[in-house]
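Internal tracking record. Fields below are filled automatically when a chain is submitted to the structure queue. Please do not edit lines marked as system-generated. If the sequence contains nonstandard residues, flag them in the REMARKS field before resubmitting.
Queue: standard
Priority: normal
Entity type: single polypeptide chain
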Amino acid sequence: MSAAQIASALADRRNDDWSAEDTDLVRAEVSPIALDIARTLLRRSPDPTRRRYATESDSDLLRILGVVNDAGRLKRAGSLLFAERHGGPGTGPDHVVYQFRKTPAGEPTVVQRIDGPLLPALVRVLELIDARVDKTPVNLPGGQQVQLADLPEAAVREAVVNALVHRDYRLGGPVRIEHAPTRLVVASPGPLVFGVTVENILTTTSRPRNPLLASAVRMLGLAEEAGVGVDRMYREMVRVGHQPPRYLEEADRVTVTLLGGAPNRHLARYVAALPEAEQDDADTLLILYHLLTHRVLSAVDAAPLLQKDIVETQEVLLRLGTEPVAMLEPTRETVRRRHPNYRLRSAALSALGPAVRYHRGHRDDAERKVIELLQAAGQVNARMVRVALDLDAQATSRLLGGLVDEGVLVRISESRRGPSVTYGPGPKLSTRGGRRRRSKTGTTSEEEPLF
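SYSTEM-GENERATED OUTPUT FOLLOWS
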C-alpha cells in the first residue's frame, strides 16, 4: 500500500469523515447551476418537507443540506457538490471519465471528461447513460405496458451514485465508466469501506465513507439509505432476468459490472404477479433467478447466494413455499431432511414458460410451434418467432440455435447474426416434424414429413 492508501485506511477505521472537514471556500463560490439542479431535484421529491426546501434562500438551502459551517464557509461536501473549485488536494481535475462503445470490445465512440461541481457532473453522466440505453415494451398481467431498459435505470443510478459518493476522495483520479449497450462498468478510487467485503456487501450493515456527502445527496433524492442501494441494484437486475451485479475489489479501486440485454419478458410478468412485498425482495428474486437454470436449491446452496447464514436462508425458502407466495416446494425425496431441496412448483413453471431453461415440456411446445410456422411460411427468422411465440431476444436465440444444432433448421441467408437471419428446413426436420395419424384399419402411421 502507498502512504496515501495507508492514511486512508487508518482514517476509515477511526470513522473520520473527510467530507465534513472545513474548507476556505465561501458562499460566493457556489455555482448557480448546481443550486438550480438541487432545487429541481427537491421539487420532484414525494416528501412535502423536501419540496419546501426548494423555496429556501441559497444560504438556508446550503445550511439545511449541512454543507456549510457556522461561519458560512463550505465543508468539503459542499465544495464537491456546489463549488467550481474544490477545497483540498487529491480530488483531481475530473469527477468522471465516461466512454461509450457500440460493442464491449470496440473502439470508444464517445469520450467525455466531466469536471466542475459534483452535482451537475452526476446528473450529466446519468443523462449520457440513459440516452444510450435501449428499452423493450412489455405487457404485464394486468394489461399495463411498461418500458423495460436493457440496463435498469435504478441499478445504473445506484452504481454511479455509489461510486461518486462513497469513493475515497483522499486518493486521486476520477471515477471511470465504461458503457456498451448491454454492459456498464463503473470503477471508483479506493477499496470498500472497512468491514465490507465482496462476500457480504449485499447484507452487511455498512456506513458510508463520506457520511456528510452521502446525507446531502440522499436528501436531494439521488441516493438510498446506507446499505439499501446495493440491495436495490441486485433486485432491479434480477427481476428482468439479468445477472446480479459483479463486484471486484482491488487495493486502489472497486469495480462494479452490470450485464444487461433484452429483458426476460416471461420473468418480468411472473414477478409483476407476485405479492407486492415479494416483488421488491432481493432474496425472493435471487432464488427465483437461480431456479431458472437449476432444478433444485437447498439452504446450504442458497446461503452464499443470499449472503445469509443457513438458518436465515431456510426461513426464506420456507416462506416462498407457503401462501401467499407458494412458489417453491420441497422435493419428495428430501422433504424429511433438515435442509431439503426446493424446486419450482408446477404453477410457477407454467407461468414462467421459456424463462425456465431446463423445462423440456415448454421447449418441446415452442419447437413444435416453430416447425408449424416454418411449414406455413416456408422459412422463418427471429422476428417471426419472437412475435408468434411472444419470446424475448435471448430465448428466441437459444431456441433457434438449438434447432440449428439438432439439424432441424439450417441458415439459408448470407447474414449469420441478427434478427434478420433466415432459416429453412434442415435434414433432421422429418424426424421431428412428422405427426401420427390413425389409418382406416385403426392402426397409426407417420404422416408425410412437413418437407
